[in-house]
């Protein structure tokens, strides 16, 4: 196994285009700033830049320097072909969903470098833990939930629970999340649209009125709570995602939320899911476990005066030290 000098590290960040990120709230950018401050050498590449050749996984990547200056937040060097197993200490898999076959293919390729390079989050665990399916392992903490493509089943669920929320199984950022009232107006049309738009079943949950007071994002680093932020829906919305107009507010954890985190923390750590964001409504109802590209740490640090990016690098250092000692 490759012996790794913990600092400085060579880090390849698989993410979305640098040009399009919003640095004021982007968690990946926040992590990159924290890594650069520690002297780590950063590279940027897209998932489409991956190549498998002669038994090696390569990425056409560009060295990048980042700075917290809106509109001038990055500078690229000349592209290099990196062997992700030999040339890199850490790969951060941070591109946003959709969690589709392209995303899954990237996890399969990155899994092939795991014996040589630390990939965060663990690619096989990411593949096996999509947000709205992995959470079913903790159904005791969830609102009543159904996954289906059957209109009759959805109607029955609505009759049982009065109001429901319908959302795509592999969606993100609050896109295509619908609230259906007691009268079920347009339910059949909505189900038709979902079935025409996605080949997968969709998720249906009992509506939790407490969402009006916020949907709490809790961040766990290597299984331990790092902080939380409450995301409050905008006027006329049930969606609290910051990407669709929600606002952030300082918060603390309830006893129930601590119970949820304690229940899943050891499993997250065992799976190599080092940076995870979970969503809890009303202080008690778990709705998602985000492992692909969780967000929220910029707001948490702003409210709590913490350094969540630094905590992530500390956890990475601990993982690398454990691998070197093995």
TrEMBL record:
It is an enzyme of class 6 (ligase). One of its GO terms (molecular function) is ATP binding. Pfam families: GSH-S_ATP, GSH-S_N. Its cofactor is Mg(2+); Mn(2+). GO terms for cellular component: cytoplasm. The keyword Protein biosynthesis does not apply. The keyword Thylakoid does not apply. Keywords: ATP-binding, Glutathione biosynthesis, Ligase, Magnesium, Manganese, Metal-binding, Nucleotide-binding. Its EC number is 6.3.2.3. Coiled coil: none annotated. SUPFAM superfamilies: Glutathione synthetase ATP-binding domain-like, PreATP-grasp domain. It catalyses: gamma-L-glutamyl-L-cysteine + glycine + ATP = glutathione + ADP + phosphate + H(+). Residues 132-317 form the ATP-grasp domain. Pathway: Sulfur metabolism; glutathione biosynthesis; glutathione from L-cysteine and L-glutamate: step 2/2. Belongs to the prokaryotic GSH synthase family. This is Glutathione synthetase.
